[in-house]
Amino acid sequence: MVIKHLKLKNWRNFRQAEMDLARVSYVIGPNASGKSNLLDVFRFLRDICKADGGGLQKAVKDRGGITKLRCLHHRNDSEVRIEVTLAESFEDDAATWKYVLGFKGKGAERSLITTEEVWRCGKQLLARPLKNDKEDSILLTETHLEQTMANREFREMVEVFSDITYLHLVPQLLKYGEQIGGKRLDDDPFGQGFLERLSKTPEKTRESRLKRIQTALNMAVPQFKELRFGKDDMGHPHLEALYEHHRPNAGWQGEEHFSDGTLRLLGMLWSLLDGNGLLLLEEPELSLHQAVVEQIPAMIDRVQRNRKTRRQVLISTHSQALLDNPGIDPRGVAVLEPSREGTSLRHVDEVEAAGLNAGLSIADVVLPNTRPKGIEQLGLWE
Predict the structure, then answer these.
(1) Which are the contacts of 6, defined by CB distance < 8 A and separation ≥ 6?
(2) What is the distance between the alpha carbons of residues 24 and 241, in angstroms, rounded to a whole number?
(3) Per the confidence metrics, is the pTM higher than 0.85?
(4) Average pLDDT estimate for 251-275
């Protein structure tokens, strides 16, 4: 099951926005245009569906409440509305599922559902508010996504949302996790518990994945030779690497000695192999050499080639090197354009498409159109 289309109203930066998704999609735009906020709508749906400790109210609260979530440019229409279309595959033109959720703030503490719809193959299975909802408005504080007894007919769709993964691995949290300590966020989006996740993976599966990742690191990291997983005397999990070195007995190095780029690349490769749902990658180019970044689109395709179920991937990026790859499907490129009335979202236009058909890349013809106006004056600032 894949997500093919997203439609938003009054979500964060966006008064109105629509986006088609491909197998691998790219979100590009200037700083503060809403790339992270666009990815967050999928995390929001996942958070609603959490079996333990999720739900609409917590998902809204975790984002600072409805006033932080709702677009500042909403005028008189304050309803936040999310519409997602799913299909069995990208080859299917007809939608298998469609989910619509609208909600508004009710006082300082609660959000109330204004509409919740579920469609399957064009047939409507759910249309809220129901009669019971109108008689007892407290029912409108919970979606049917989060209710096991209520989502039986469309649990397949719920599982798709539940499988969404976000990764923005922060190497320092992994290297110095024990020293930093502190509370770990739900779903560990920044990789603080990455080693524990590896530890919980069945040994045979873990070793198979690490072997594939080792092959990629052999090509991307100079002198990298071997990767292994182990535990110290206290039972804490660790990754170790062996490098080709002028000292033949230099020994293994723990993850605290890995470069930031190596750790981010390792985390991305593991995530591509680890799940089946939509994978959200925020700026995967960070800390990586340009030559490695250029290969990210091909690497995503290659690492999943032998999997029964290939992950759908949504990437936010500024990187010219990444977007210069000729294999990028322009149908999955979303361009964000901020204005005083909020951010608009568009796909590749006719002029840009003509350039792509002539053999140019997304980096050549689309990325330059996201440059902030007047950026040349930055060097003259005093």
Answers:
(1) 17, 18, 19, 21, 41, 82, 83, 84, 85
(2) 30
(3) yes
(4) 89
